[in-house]
Amino acid sequence: MAERKFDLRGWEHSNPSDPIANPTNVLGMIWDRHCDTLSLNIPDLRELMEEAITKRNILAASHKVFEPLGITGPVLLLPKLWLQSLWKFQIGWDQEVDIKTKSRFSEMAKGAGILKACSSTKVATL
Questions:
Q1: CA-based, 20 to 30 A from 73: which of 12, 18, 42, 58?
Q2: CA–CA separation, 56 vs 60, rounded Å?
Q3: Rounded distance between C-alpha atoms, residue 39 and residue 115, angstroms
C-alpha cells in the first residue's frame, strides 16, 4: 500500500468479543464496532427552533445532515422542496416564513431524532 502512496494508519476492526469497542466515525456515520452496524450521525435540529424560521435557517438545517449512502434522501428532500416554494413567493433570506412552512419545519426538526435510531449492518464482507 505504501508503494502506491496509500498512507494507511489507525486501523479499526469489528470484534464482538472486544469489550472496549467504542463507536467510530466513518464517512460521517457512526460505526458501532461491537454490533458491526452503521447508524446516522444526526445533529440536534431543535436548537434552530429557538431562532426565527427563515429561508436561511431551513437551508442550513437541510445541509447539517451528511450521510453518503442516501438513506435520508426522502427526509431531506422536504426542506429543499419548501425552499423551492419559498423562492416562488420571493421571500428574502432573513424574512420569517409563513405559518404553514414554519409548522412543517418544526415538525421535521423534532422528528429528526428518529433518524438516529436507523442503523444498518454492513453491506459487503471483504
A1: 12
A2: 6
A3: 9
